[in-house]
């Protein structure tokens, strides 16, 4: 009878754990921050003109740079067109570095809402070590080729994982589902490539996660 009760209890425990495991998407890991971005209110044509004015002013501020009358007249005409469209040239250019930093912050901030939560997420294995064709330490990334064939995603789109038992991928960028407790933890890992070493920053981590490999 005790054995029966133990089996039932373990079954209920597994069921509760399964229910507590929240399936998430990669976009869930991005922290939503809102700010007024005045550049989004400009048309493509206005953005191109503003960029030309910015380059001209940056060039003019450099030492030992001579501006021709033709270059000055061309810039003046572009500024006049923007002013006629009520574009605040000086105000926008004064805020460009601030807005650039806010945009970068927006795409890199981690979502603390999931810290220490039991989650499941799909992704692709990017091995950090390979022993006897098995992997125990890797980065989980949202698309095939990330960090190798394409630039690294922002850190809130990379999860660092350590496994208690190594797994054997069947192909490069093995598709998997991982389940475990996710933590907001910034870590820099060395990814070794054919042409050298590349440091990759992850914004999340999991330890001793359960992993399911998808084999075609």
Coarse shape: elongated
Spell out the helices and strands N to C. Answer: HEHHHEEEEEE
Please identify the structural class as seen in this structure. alpha+beta
Give the total of beta strands: 7
Helix content: 25-40%
Q: Tell me the major beta sheet.
A: 5 strands, mixed, barrel
Distance between the termini: 44 Å
Mean pLDDT score, rounded?
87
β content, as a range? 25-35%
Radius of gyration, in angstroms, nearest whole number: 25 Å
Number of helices: 4
Low-confidence stretches: 1-18
Assembly type of the shown chains?
single chain
For the biggest β-sheet, the strand order reads: 2-3-4-6-5
Task: Give me some keywords for this one.
alpha+beta; disordered N terminus; five-stranded mixed barrel
Report on the architecture of this protein.
With 216 residues, the protein is an alpha+beta fold. The protein has helices spanning 2-20, 44-60, 69-84, 89-108, and strands at 22-23, 117-127, 135-141, 159-167, 175-193, 196-207, 210-213. The protein has a 5-stranded mixed beta barrel with strand order 2-3-4-6-5. It starts with a helix and ends with a strand. Mean pLDDT is 87; it is low at 1-18.
In short:
The protein has four helices and seven strands. It is an alpha+beta fold. A hairpin with a 7-residue loop joins β2 (117-127) and β3.
